[in-house]
Amino acid sequence: MDRYQAMTTFVRVVETGSFSAAARQLGVGQPAVSKTVAQLEARLQVSLLIRTTHGLTPTEAGQNFYERARNAIQEADEAELAAKGAGIGLSGRLRVSAATTFSRLHVIPKLPEFLAAHPQLDVDFLLDDRMIDLVAEGVDISLRMGALSDSTAVARKIATGRRSVIATPAYLARAGIPWHPADLANHDTVIYSQLPSVWSFTRDGAAVSVSVSGRLRVSAAEGLRAAILADMGLTITSDWMFAPELERGAVVRVLEGWSLSPIDLWAVFPAGRMMTAKARQFAGFVEDLMNSVA
């Protein structure tokens, strides 16, 4: 039995959840996939898969084998890519985790360029505003903004963006324009629950911190955008999150004489695993995108 092929087959079975789907992706018959997994279990003398109502699920031993086999395949692919040279396009599957709104506005619309450069590459995008377990989810690279909560994370800063207090012209016409951070106490504030409710401003070396509150608190950036565009108040946000609206004047900045700390965009990689060429090149692609936006 070809060990590399057996590992590749098993990894594909786990990721697709069935023998038939794995067979379609591998371009072989289902009996060949079933036989390969059975031979693998016989050689290892352990059960790797169990059948459930949702398909095939790895056992504890199967999950451990899957994670190590997937890493081994990636490292083998890295070695092959290095031997062939940088002119060869990427291949296989790239799993990306990123915040929903940021991806929708800035990354996914440009993704055809990346895919065109690498016609043998497939991309899985996991869209979630929360930080997920990269290893458990099989993620190659995660795009995250702000401070990183995990000090052990392998990360590279790829962009820095401006943060602003923004609102719609309609809301400001109704509620007035704040000229000093203290004026925010008299305004409706839409709170993004993943950020602190104390906003810190600086001007001419002086610092002012304001504790804000509001009747609406949202847990996702899409909800924040919807609330602001519905004239429900003002908020503090990265300019990235409202780039189209800022450009056409649908929202405007206030308190522009005051500075807010910038926000960083990070490429985060799974701890304990070698960074793949796919992840490294995708990070460079996004870095170039955001530099062009800036």
From TrEMBL:
Organism the protein comes from: Gluconacetobacter diazotrophicus
Family matches, as InterPro entries: LysR-type_TF_proteobact-type (IPR058163), LysR_HTH_N (IPR000847), LysR_subst-bd (IPR005119), WH-like_DNA-bd_sf (IPR036388), WH_DNA-bd_sf (IPR036390)
GO molecular function terms listed in the Swiss-Prot or TrEMBL record: DNA-binding transcription factor activity; sequence-specific DNA binding
GO biological process, one term: DNA-templated transcription
Protein name in UniProt: LysR family transcriptional regulator
Superkingdom of the source species: Bacteria
Gene3D superfamilies with a match to the protein in the record: 3.40.190.290, Winged helix-like DNA-binding domain superfamily/Winged helix DNA-binding domain
Pfam families associated with the record: HTH_1 (PF00126), LysR_substrate (PF03466)
Phylogenetic classification of the source organism: Bacteria, Pseudomonadati, Pseudomonadota, Alphaproteobacteria, Acetobacterales
